[in-house]
Design a protein that fits this description.
Largest sheet: 7 strands, mixed
Number of strands: 16
CATH architecture of the largest domain: Alpha-Beta Complex
CATH topology of the largest domain: Quinone Oxidoreductase, Chain A, domain 1
Number of helices: 11
Mean pLDDT: 95
Number of domains: 2
Oligomer: single chain
CATH class of the largest domain: Alpha Beta
């Protein structure tokens, strides 16, 4: 293997000052590991948070940034079965993806869906898993219900729009940019609503006063607060994250009066805490991918030489959907 580049975080800082693109020497895989020649990596908001020390998972410094990506198997460690040199694979792990050469546990790999290019293959797994655990496992979304998806023009939200439509729900998608929202219609969004201002009134109007049966909220802050004003009686409010920066609080008497549930969703942690569920969930997601339910919304592609610029673009929300770092050959 040739000398390669890797985007590494050496110290925690709010301005990416501790992140640099370094030349590194690849190492061979240990037992149970697979060496992957990465072709692309997709950014997620936790990637940014981890460089600040603001995420639940805090990898030891220095660490290679990037939770998901895709590439080609170049070597397998002792005891690895199911993968061989030359296989095209998707990768989902806690870090390590923005590099020419990377090592992952064999369980972090899955096959690239047939006919997908590298940017698409890099950017679908975390969104699909989060959407499935949220809407199916935790939220129990049913056909005929109304699903309100916040942050719908982001990678997590777009996956929820796609799955909600596939499950037979009426999907109301919110976002701040009208042109970005329009890209969600082909993905299954029934109604597009601006998240600026009193979106809760529009949701109530669109549902004839009933409100949303399920709310998918990766935003938090004011969006969460307003969602409690348009959730249906007996609805489910899914807490995915706090991209807005403010962690909201809630009056318990309001939950009582409207009899709704507030449900936390940590999709990866769900599988770690309930490993027996993993084969079924992963099998269902694979089936949905094969049916064409999931396909990421790729909003921007940066070369690896501009990987830090890609992180800044994510921070400033400069593109819809997934921001992808194209890696190519070392």
């Amino acid at each position: 293997m040739s000398r390669s580049l890797a985007l590494r975080c050496h110290r925690l800082a709010d301005d990416l000052a501790g992140v640099s693109l370094d030349a590194v020497d690849p190492t061979p895989p240990a037992a149970g590991q697979v060496a992957v020649s990465m072709r692309a990596a997709a950014l997620n908001f936790p990637d940014l948070l981890m460089t600040r020390g603001g995420y639940q998972h805090k990898p030891a410094l220095p660490f290679v940034v990037g939770m998901e990506g895709a590439g080609v198997v170049e070597a397998v460690g002792e005891g690895v079965t199911g993968w061989q040199v030359g296989d095209a694979v998707c990768v989902s792990d806690k870090s390590g993806c923005i590099a020419h050469h990377a090592l992952f546990p064999a369980a972090a790999l899955s096959p690239v869906p047939t006919g997908w290019d590298w940017p698409d293959a890099a950017g679908w797994q975390i969104g699909a898993l989060t959407a499935y655990v949220a809407l199916v496992v935790r939220g129990g979304l049913r056909a005929g219900e109304t699903l309100l998806v916040h942050g719908a023009t982001g990678g997590m939200g777009a996956a929820a729009v796609q799955l909600g439509a596939a499950l037979g729900a009426t999907v109301i998608a919110t976002g701040s940019d009208p042109s970005w929202l329009e890209r969600l219609r082909p993905m299954g969004a029934t109604h597009l609503v601006s998240s600026r201002g009193d979106f809760h009134e529009q949701v109530k109007a669109l549902t004839g006063g009933h409100g949303a049966d399920v709310v998918y909220d990766p935003v938090g802050g004011d969006v969460f607060d307003r969602s409690t004003r348009c959730i249906a009686f007996g609805g489910r409010l899914l807490v995915i994250g706090f991209a807005a920066g403010r962690i909201p609080t809630l009056a318990a008497n309001h939950v009582l009066i409207k009899s709704y549930s507030v449900i936390g969703v940590r999709a990866g942690e769900w599988l770690r805490q309930r490993p027996g569920d993993a084969p079924r969930i992963q099998g269902e997601i694979a089936r949905l991918v094969a049916q064409g339910t999931f396909r990421p919304l790729v909003g921007a592609v940066f070369p690896i030489g501009r990987a830090i610029d890609a992180l800044r673009a994510l921070e400033r929300r400069e593109a819809p959907g997934k921001i992808v770092v194209e890696i190519g050959d070392a």
